[in-house]
């Protein structure tokens, strides 16, 4: 899914110079200079407004938390029993 988003973003970036030219070229009757300025700002802010998925994937990879599919799994904090050498010898002999 992120690949499709990145491809679409790349196509948008290719068309962005044309869009910038059109934003300045066509003057709408009754449009104030402030609105023209806002219009050009929107064109320049367009690439940043579309998420490409890379930031969210990096953020999720670095986070620690409970899994949504395995909420009932709990870890025992007294896991030292597993590494007890006497226990290991008993298991090996059995």
Can you walk through the features of this model?
The chain is mainly alpha-helical and 94 residues long. The protein has one domain. Helices cover 63% and strands 0% of the residues. The chain has helices at 2-25, 33-49, 54-62, 85-93. The radius of gyration is 28 Å and the shape is elongated. The two termini are 51 Å apart.
Summarize the structure.
This protein is mainly alpha-helical and 94 residues long. It is built from 4 helices and no strands.
List keywords for this structure.
94 residues; mainly alpha
Number of strands: 0
Shape: elongated
Largest sheet: none
- Helix proportion: 55-70%
Structural class: mainly alpha
Helix-strand pattern? HHHH
Uncertain spans, ≥5 residues at pLDDT below 50? none
Discrete helix count: 4
Q: Write down the domain tally.
A: 1
Organism: Pyrus ussuriensis x Pyrus communis
Protein name: Syntaxin-71-like
Topology, pairings included?
Blueprint: H1 2-25, H2 33-49, H3 54-62, H4 85-93
Helix pairs in contact: 1-2
């Amino acid at each position: 899914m992120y690949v499709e988003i990145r491809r679409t973003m790349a196509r948008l970036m290719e068309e962005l110079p044309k869009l910038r030219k059109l934003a300045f070229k066509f003057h709408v009757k009754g449009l104030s200079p402030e609105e023209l300025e806002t219009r050009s700002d929107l064109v320049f802010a367009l690439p940043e407004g579309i998420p490409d998925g890379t930031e969210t994937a990096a953020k999720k990879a670095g986070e620690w938390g409970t899994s949504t599919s395995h909420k009932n799994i709990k870890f025992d904090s007294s896991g030292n029993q597993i590494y007890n050498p006497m226990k290991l010898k008993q298991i090996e002999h059995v």
